[in-house]
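Reminder to self: keep the SMILES exactly as supplied, no canonicalising. Ligand is magnesium ion.
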Amino acid sequence: MKEIRYIWAINEAIKEEMQRDENVVLIGEDVGTPGGSFGASRGLYDLFGPERVFDTPISEAAITGLAAGAAACGLRPIVEIMFMDFMTICMDGIVNQIAKMRYMFGSQYKVPIVIRTPSGAGLNAGPQHSQSLEAWFAHVPGLKVVMPGTPHDVKGLLKSAVRDDNPVVVVEHKALHALKGSIPEEEYLVPIGKAAVKKEGTDVTVVATSKMVHESLKASEALNQEGINIEVIDLLTISPWDKETIFSSVGKTHRLVIAHEAVKSFGVGAEISAAVSEEILDELDAPIMRVGAPFVPIPFSLEKAYLPNADHVIAAVKKTMERTF
Amino acid sequence: MKEIRYIWAINEAIKEEMQRDENVVLIGEDVGTPGGSFGASRGLYDLFGPERVFDTPISEAAITGLAAGAAACGLRPIVEIMFMDFMTICMDGIVNQIAKMRYMFGSQYKVPIVIRTPSGAGLNAGPQHSQSLEAWFAHVPGLKVVMPGTPHDVKGLLKSAVRDDNPVVVVEHKALHALKGSIPEEEYLVPIGKAAVKKEGTDVTVVATSKMVHESLKASEALNQEGINIEVIDLLTISPWDKETIFSSVGKTHRLVIAHEAVKSFGVGAEISAAVSEEILDELDAPIMRVGAPFVPIPFSLEKAYLPNADHVIAAVKKTMERTF
Amino acid sequence: MRKPGKKKLIQLYERMVTIRRVEEKLMEVFSAGEIPGFIHVCIGQEATPVAVCSWLKDSDYMSTTHRGHGHALAKGIDLKRFMAELFGKREGFCRGRSGSMHIADPKMGILGANGIVGGGIPIATGAAFAARYKKTGQVTVCFFGEGATNEGTFHESLNIASIRKLPIVYVCENNGWAEFTPQETHMPTKNVADRAKAYDLPGVIVSNDVLKIHEKAGEAVERARKGKGPTLLEVKSSRWHGHFVGDAQKYRLEKEVNGAKAMDCIANFQKRLVRDKMLGKRGIQKVADNVYQRIEEAVNFARESQFPDESELMDDLYV
Amino acid sequence: MRKPGKKKLIQLYERMVTIRRVEEKLMEVFSAGEIPGFIHVCIGQEATPVAVCSWLKDSDYMSTTHRGHGHALAKGIDLKRFMAELFGKREGFCRGRSGSMHIADPKMGILGANGIVGGGIPIATGAAFAARYKKTGQVTVCFFGEGATNEGTFHESLNIASIRKLPIVYVCENNGWAEFTPQETHMPTKNVADRAKAYDLPGVIVSNDVLKIHEKAGEAVERARKGKGPTLLEVKSSRWHGHFVGDAQKYRLEKEVNGAKAMDCIANFQKRLVRDKMLGKRGIQKVADNVYQRIEEAVNFARESQFPDESELMDDLYV
Ligand SMILES: Cc1ncc(C[n+]2csc(CCOP(=O)(O)OP(=O)(O)O)c2C)c(N)n1
Ligand SMILES: Cc1ncc(C[n+]2csc(CCOP(=O)(O)OP(=O)(O)O)c2C)c(N)n1
Ligand SMILES: [Mg+2]
Ligand SMILES: [Mg+2]
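Structure tokens returned for the bound complex:
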């Protein structure tokens, strides 16, 4: 095992996959000699040169479409969209083209594309540089969406994404880029489609994503003091999500809290909640509580008040403990 | 009362609002002399001229941004995006600019913009001309989203949208454009934020949107034969949605089905289901069932097999009648 | 560029006739309700696809638009399976999932028609990127209309292709109309080719004459093949019929439509072939019979094919 | 265009000095941790905002970018409330919700900075549309960098503005860098102004000299004001510091940075004013003192202002 920062885990994943398969190319703004806006591609230009590390103009729509064409013709592009907020500019490429190419063309094409993008708030980057928009992509058939929250998971999931023959949106969290964690020295993968129980527990199932997994683990410690033992599950893949793991945990705890940083309304938590009420409602002993951001843009200055955190998880967990049917 | 088609109800709404307020302008592709791709602006160019009926190049991103600037400077633009699928091209304008301008600029600006767009399948228009993407917009603070399904509602809601000082996305259904219905001769409005009980019932609450309201009413008739009396609620406004009406119906029937044409996963139904399980779970006597499209792009040829319809509503309703806690 | 010989000339002619007759047939069967959805025909514009694609190998790439039948046929798509796709049948290239507006055939390098105006331009650019990356020598041709040049993707893609000197030819068929709106309403410049300068590209203008297009396309394809970078080729083309089949184009003056029809790229070419004694009455008839035969077969094939089964709906979303 | 007289010249000078000193102060307080988020300063580029905005009335519109302090100040934003916004305080123009990257002031026609590269271009175009629609005679100025001209919105907006002859001036400050990447990597053409031809617009190039910019901007603003349509004005500007404060710009050669700094629009202008006896040592000192004073007051104002209260978080999402 070794200690590594989240951003370097990304860098290692890209490097290893580019070394393994010469069809893997990196496409994005400032990804060349500068090594990327957040440093994810540092050193890669020197290793792989300007054809494989394609530093593009500020043209998100074109580079996403370009990746679609390149993938249809045998390459395996990794596209960096510098901030998830800029995905708004390339939704046609991602949604109308990339996501649909395989199915709509009658399975004639494979579209192995990874779109990496840092989401999330916490750096006071304001309303246009802090959003978490994963729910949009999960609503689009043809895409897979993963959301790793640790160096271990981001490296393993990014590598799996590169090897996947389908388009995968990898949603990073920019406030986790500096986070350190340990990963194996040797190569490993984290499978797409599997959630991970990050802490076992008996009283309440807390399904969390990305940075909210860390907040939930914090909440877990505080709740322990009060004798409440929660199970923390890191969803990891948003689409297709791991029903089995979540349902079996709910079958054990009979209480569910879902926590994400995105706006709560119409967020990922809604789908998980709805699936539970549709398929295993009678397992529930309490209302399903959701933790998510309030329904306003992310303010520059009140960011801390805006962001969901461990306290919100604690409050939600307690709410589910209040009542029993 | 008079009979009118859905598309003409739209036309009347735009015309009346343009007559009422000279700051209202219409912006879109082919909206000029041709009267719009679906005919919504027929005759308006002749009435109001080329400045007020602005026939634009095929430049969705620019026209949405242009509407933002025009609204900030005192106009009240109605933008037509010809197919909802093309909203993918102007998500930055809608999400990063229009939706955030008021809040992010500290309430200094009003952004009275209407974005009208025909959604939905049923014309065999294929995967890039048939999507229902309302869930995306409902997830964005700052936007309002309405989804009228009848001539009456589209006219009344569109007029309300034009008068609203906030941005409103008006999601039409292109397969309803030819639908006839009766509307008052005199001027009327349908309020944003209110759902409508389209058929009262006692056994199951069916919350539906747009074309699925009609399918649910069909289902209601069939179910009547079997002695099942459903309440059909037309959600009408997706965001902010009318919790009160839905919750009070669920409080009466204790059973809930939600039906929309969009892909079921991560769709609007998930939010309604989640809100119910969060706030009034103990009102439920049965699982919450959702009806929505399957998780694939909309195929050209198998469209009928793809589309959710009355039979799916019937099956879902029956499922909620099967079990009781 | 080498001037085409007799065999080549007849081939060009036959292909143009094929496209026209296919489109006419499609108008007929569409109007009879045999084809669902909506279709856009390219009657009047046959010279461009045929002339341009005559320079391409099967392995070269091509992307097209909603008005893409001619391009697909010129690139060599199998007529039967093409027709089956438009009919929504399982034997179509895309299992009936795409119809006219998204038809694709990887084996012939056809990256797909596209329902999004401007949507195919970056995709084609990506194919050119892949070909260059893999040093395969493949060239990509990207077709679109003048209306599409107002989309941001046009601008961004040409910029990228130029910096990277990608092996691609951008072909704009300027038929003067985007749906129901004439070019003047949407563009301050008369020539799309004038936009090439913004990307330091050659911008070439040519009339709707198959031999002239053939010559200029040959130069552009050669330029791409030799690694010298992209070209923007504008053909002053003409659309005879409505935007889609069923559009009575009431928004056009009769005079203007007649003007478009007068610019008949097939009739002009045929006259010239006859004048140059490359083609006689019998030759013309032979082509006509041959084309008729193939189209009848294709339509029958499409009619007899099965619709996909409901059980196929959820197939193969992912690999 | 009328040549500026002494009073005007001193005013231009003082405004340029104000911007530079504000940016320097911001670098200082940002580095000390007093400002959250990230900020982009425009040191080296002060001539453009000042020269261009000197032609504008308070009621004229202006849109800017992430690198927008100079533009906002030149357009006349109140320095105290500007500073308070950057500090995230309630008395800031946007209640502390926007910070540097989204600051706006409707009363001075400031439509907002923008965190999206290219995001402000259509918005400015819309303001021009509204002004023309309402026949107010207002002109809009739209600032952006050369990197932004690779976004589709640039292309689409200029096309629209040109067809409609909107009263707008597009001002590209070409500082040669987009974040950490030089222009050559992203653009096949050397001059952004060359792109104007694609829209049948005048494309004007001017060096980083306040008087030259003043002259050309005057012509462009007049053209817009008279209803003759838009202009694309490119200033060959220079960025001295990193993309954002804290960026050590290791990716630039020392020589190149020194070259940029040598093109000092303020020092050059000052030299000239001194040479022409418009300004002496005392005048320079007076300006410096005055500017210093105002900045100190603004920073103190910002420091003493309150942060917004948590209770304000949900305020005013809708009207
Ligand atoms: C993004 C997008 N906007 C609008 C449309 C609707 N639309 C389909 S074809 C067309 C006109 C295209 O004109 P042009 O590019 O000149 O092609 P032509 O039809 O003349 O071949 C429009 C506006 C679309 N399909 N996609
Ligand atoms: C749509 C979008 N893509 C990328 C970015 C990240 N970004 C911020 S500034 C910048 C460079 C802009 O360069 P230029 O337009 O030349 O302006 P300058 O910074 O030189 O003033 C980039 C790529 C962004 N903010 N928005
Ligand atoms: Mg055209
Ligand atoms: Mg720059």
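Points to follow up:
Residues 2-183 of chain A form a domain with the Rossmann fold fold (CATH 3.40.50.970).
The mean pLDDT of chain A is 97.
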